[in-house]
Amino acid sequence: MQAIANRDRATSSDREDVPNTSRKPATRKTPPPQVNCFPLPPLAEWKRPRSTGAYYYGIYVAENAIEEYAVRVNPEAANHPSSIQYFYGLDHLRWIANDQSLDIQIAVIRPRHKEAMPCITENRTATILCLFPMEIEAVKKRMSAETVDKLANALGCKPDWYEIYFFS
Questions:
Q1: Does residue 4 carry a pLDDT above 80?
Q2: Which of 62, 145, 60 is nearest to 97 (CA)?
Q3: Peptide bond before residue 42 is cis, with ω within 30 degrees of 0
Q4: What is the DSSP string of 37-63?
Q5: N or C: where does the chain have the smaller number of CB atoms within 10 Å of the terminal CB?
């Protein structure tokens, strides 16, 4: 009886030959890789803003792109007005990103945007899906590359930094 009591009081260093089965193996997954939002806008553009000077990483939204996306993911949406399709499509994009802060804003279109993305047809301003602002905390906590790829594929254009024309 004394031997059993002594064995139970033994420290872990005394019991090197006994495996520790009470401890669960580590199951923590590494987070998915974040989107590569670099390079930042050119310094000359940054120093001479055309409007607010606030930059967001976002995806260009062509005319009726959100409505068309809504019908693609839910063909029944075609039976509803375009305003309902718009809200359904935007809500579905928020669901994909698991981020209710995704918003549509008006952004300044620069020549570098049109050169990099021929899908942009507007000349001065266009609508974009704002993913996150150019702020230290937001960039540190930016969404995953996989999520941004899903959003870009849904809207048919790649993301970039845009200066917000005005906040709506």
A1: no
A2: 145
A3: no
A4: --SPPPHHHHHS-SS---EEEEEE--T
A5: N
